[in-house]
Amino acid sequence: MDQHLIVFKAVADKRSFSQAAKALHISQPAISLQIQSLEEQLGTRLFDRNNKRVILTQAGKTFYKYATQIMELYDQAQKDISELTGMVKGKIEVGASLTIGEYILPRIAGNFLREHAQVNLSINIKNTEEIVQKILSTGLDIGLVEGHVEHSDLIIEKFMEDELVVIVPYDHPWAKKDYISASSLLSQPFIHREEGSGTRQVMEDTLMEHAINPEDLQVSMELGSTQAVKEAVEAGLGISIISKWAIKKDLKLKTLGMTRVKDCIFNRDFYVVYNKHHFKTQAMETFLNYLQIEDLHQIIEGE
Question: 146 near 268, Cβ under 8 Å?
Fold first, then answer.
């Protein structure tokens, strides 16, 4: 693949020389030289630089259309050859929301790569909103998210189920109870995930369905990761509601306890999302199919 095309499309998609350099892992001066060389070859300017923003000229828009078609044809050729040879290879940019990225994706990725050693998985861990935005801007190939997502440009498919549970310090009285009442959640300091978190969205929606206003929780702090929430709960700073997948080791090590809310089940689905307009390489299709295998739960459990 001509490096000029790769650099040109990255700059056009990111609308920034610096962001394109970051995405391609090369220096910004190298990006500028590639664009300058391409413009000299074509005999026209492809970008207007204005107020630190990069905008395609009319010639740039025309060239972008052909560059996109060329790159898609190249990807299709690679895909067809991979199918002929039976070898799956290539790079997949995967975004995962925090719970999935920290506690679920590592096992999935490890098993997938043992079967497909020629694939390079690059993993970005962000919250659900950030992952969706990156998918829409084609900054990521595939996203694995916790929250409910809707967008006309996205393909959204369920790939597994999850349950949120109440976590407490190991010596907390609730740790010995199978269930607590929903109203009792309001009696304890509560540790929240940040706005935009899929975990928080599901928890708040479920509470409201059971006539509990999330604003009535005694929120003592908001934290930006599941691990930070667990550390705060273990330190006795409050209780929280997080994925059962996130506390498997903590329960075995007896650093945290858990319970459930009676008649209030915090179930949710995990979704794989990708841009319907983004070409699916053979590596992408193979990974997407892998997420739908029947024994995915057993793989994550390590059984």
Answer: yes
